[in-house]
Amino acid sequence: MLVALGDTHGERSHRLEGRTLTAAREADHVCHTGDFTTERVYEAIANEAGSKQGGTPLSAVAGNSDEPTLAARLPNTVTVEYGGYTVVLVHGHDHDDTSLSLLARQEGAEIIIAGHTHRPAIERTSHCLLVNPGSHADPRGNRPGHAELTRRETGATIELRTPDGDLIADHTLSEPR
């Protein structure tokens, strides 16, 4: 399973709890759309992702609220291959739906994961699936959330879940191109 997190906006801890914490610990790959805020929060999330036997990769991008030393360590865009799918990860503050769709086309990606709005959502465009995992810790009037991409025998399922485990939304993907 690939787990996507975003917009933690923490000062000291990962702020992961419930199903979100379990998913991050059990994932094959963890992605974060930025706005950890501090290096300490980035390291805490990396440690939880790495707590699985053999460690789990953490792919992350800089957000517009990350402290300068952290932002300098992180790229603005990351491309990840998972289960045969190409996934592009961005924070989203420099993009609208059209530019995200064009970025997917440019990168040959089936999925774009972008944060910034704190609003968990899945939207199909002509070029890709746009996924916003929301914020597990700072939902700002939205439901707290994270995303889980699970490979199936044919295709995959992406689910948006709350830390309590409630399903917010889901989408089934056909086989990757």
UniProtKB/TrEMBL annotation:
Gene3D superfamilies: 3.60.21.10. Its cofactor is a divalent metal cation. Residues 133-156 are annotated as: Disordered. Residues 137-154 have a biased composition (Basic and acidic residues). Pfam families: Metallophos_2 (PF12850). It is an enzyme of class 3 (hydrolase). Residues 2-145 form the Calcineurin-like phosphoesterase domain. Belongs to the metallophosphoesterase superfamily. YfcE family. NCBIfam families: yfcE. This is Phosphoesterase. It comes from Halapricum hydrolyticum.
